[in-house]
């Protein structure tokens, strides 16, 4: 019989050794006793060598089993967290499939030319290219359902159209910027009305000199990259294409893709755990200025920031559809050395993808994994 240090017995009750083990595993050790270093209730007091050895063995077993029980608790908590993440991804997958099924619904019964999504995108493209006002587009959406057969699924307002597109993470974030490119009004500067560096007003001014609250002077558009990368793995075909680089390195010494470059080999050698996962993304970044208004007599420089995905076959990674617009830096003047201010939200997402990764569902293998990404180089003036 030995003293039991569990939460209930508290070093008062004596129990059989097997019962002490059971108490420690099921109930845990008394916290106040656990924190002590001497464990005075379990000192060896017998002078006999055999008794001393037996007592020491029991004490070692108690300590070992307690630590094993504590480790098991940690493992169970970790496993529960992982299960919760996987279940969350499964729920998200189900919701995504429901949205996809809704998007692929024919525009009206027996319609073979347009689905709900293709009709909305086609109309939205015409609105953009034709420079239609929101009011005129709303009027069109209100009128078209009356011309279509009954049971059509076309949205009747611009608000509903935007809400529908955003449900697929197709939207962007508007981030107010200092007119002199000093800072972005986000995080700790989110509630400021003036730039903390140059004191310029965040808001536009009326001709009377009054401030137009709520109307920013300069707006950065950021298209978040994490949901877009995750969405690529929702497509079984795309998820397969994103593994291309892993098994298609050149064997004849000729360079056909960046995977054949010295830089790629050095990255794999320096970061073997990153290289071991074929689904991890390797990106290239580029930016260039252009005049979006196509007026040669007007100097206006708007700067798009692009990301190129180098995981895929060279034909696919250079395809316009797969080059990601991530930032649209407003003009009228080029940002110059202040471009790092505008890159801030993109850099934060890239750091998160490198350090922590993002739990992602892979439609090709039907599994969940931690997606990581690396920015391997920049290419100047690539858009041009």
Summarize the helices and strands and which ones pair or pack.
Blueprint: E1 2-3, E2 14-15, H1 17-27, H2 31-34, H3 49-103, H4 116-130, H5 134-147, H6 158-166, E3 173-177, E4 203-205, E5 211-216, E6 218-222, H7 225-232, H8 236-241, H9 244-247, H10 262-270, H11 272-276, E7 281-287, E8 303-309, H12 314-317, E9 324-329, H13 339-342, H14 344-355, E10 358-362, E11 367-371, E12 373-378
Parallel strand pairs: 7-12
Antiparallel strand pairs: 1-2, 3-6, 4-5, 6-9, 7-8, 8-9, 10-11
What do these coordinates show?
By secondary structure, the protein is α+β, with helices and mostly antiparallel strands. It folds into four domains: about 1-75, no CATH class; about 115-165, no CATH class; about 175-180 and about 190-220, no CATH class; about 225-250 and about 260-380, no CATH class. It contains 14 helices and twelve strands. The strands form four sheets. Strands 3-6-9-8-7-12 form a six-stranded mixed sheet, with helices on both faces. Strands 1-2 form a two-stranded antiparallel sheet. The longest helix is centred in the N-terminal third of the chain and has 55 residues, at about 50-105.
Summary?
The chain contains 14 helices and twelve strands. The chain has helices spanning about 15-25, 30-35, 50-105, 115-130, 135-145, 160-165, 225-230, 235-240, 245, 260-270, 270-275, 315, 340, 345-355; strands at about 1-5, 15, 175, 205, 210-215, 220, 280-285, 305-310, 325-330, 360, 365-370, 375-380. The longest helix is centred in the N-terminal third of the chain and has 55 residues, at about 50-105.
């Amino acid at each position: 019989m030995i003293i039991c240090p569990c939460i209930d017995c508290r070093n008062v009750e004596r129990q059989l050794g097997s019962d002490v083990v059971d108490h420690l595993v099921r109930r845990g050790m008394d916290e106040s006793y656990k924190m002590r270093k001497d464990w005075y209730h379990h000192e060896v007091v017998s002078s006999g060598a055999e008794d001393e050895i037996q007592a020491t063995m029991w004490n070692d077993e108690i300590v070992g089993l307690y630590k094993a029980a504590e480790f098991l608790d940690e493992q169970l908590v970790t496993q529960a967290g992982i299960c919760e993440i996987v279940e969350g991804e499964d729920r998200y997958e189900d919701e995504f499939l429901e949205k996809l099924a809704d998007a692929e619904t024919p525009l009206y019964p027996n319609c073979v030319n347009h689905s709900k999504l293709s009709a909305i995108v086609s109309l939205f493209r015409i609105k953009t290219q034709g420079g239609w006002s929101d009011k005129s587009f709303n009027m069109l959406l209100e009128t078209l359902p009356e011309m279509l057969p009954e049971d059509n699924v076309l949205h009747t307002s611009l608000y509903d159209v935007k809400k529908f597109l955003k449900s697929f993470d197709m939207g962007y974030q508007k981030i107010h910027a200092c007119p002199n490119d000093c800072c972005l009004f986000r995080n700790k500067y989110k509630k400021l009305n003036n730039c903390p560096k140059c004191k310029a007003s965040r808001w536009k001014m009326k001709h009377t000199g009054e401030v137009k609250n709520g109307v920013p002077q300069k707006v950065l558009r950021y298209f978040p990259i994490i949901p877009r990368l995750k969405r690529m793995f929702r497509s079984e075909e795309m998820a397969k294409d994103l593994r291309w680089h892993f098994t298609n390195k050149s064997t004849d010494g000729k360079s056909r893709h960046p995977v054949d470059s010295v830089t790629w080999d050095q990255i794999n050698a320096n970061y073997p755990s990153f290289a071991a996962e074929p689904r991890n993304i390797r990106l290239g970044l580029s930016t260039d200025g252009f005049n979006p208004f196509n007026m040669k007599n007007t100097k206006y420089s708007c700067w798009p920031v692009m990301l190129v995905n180098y995981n895929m076959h060279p034909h696919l990674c250079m395809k316009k559809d797969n080059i990601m617009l991530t930032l649209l830096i407003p003009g009228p003047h080029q940002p110059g050395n202040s471009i790092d201010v505008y890159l801030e939200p993109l850099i934060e997402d890239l750091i998160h993808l490198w350090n922590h990764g993002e739990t992602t569902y892979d439609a090709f293998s039907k599994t969940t994994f931690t997606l990581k990404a690396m920015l391997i180089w920049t290419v100047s003036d690539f858009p041009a």
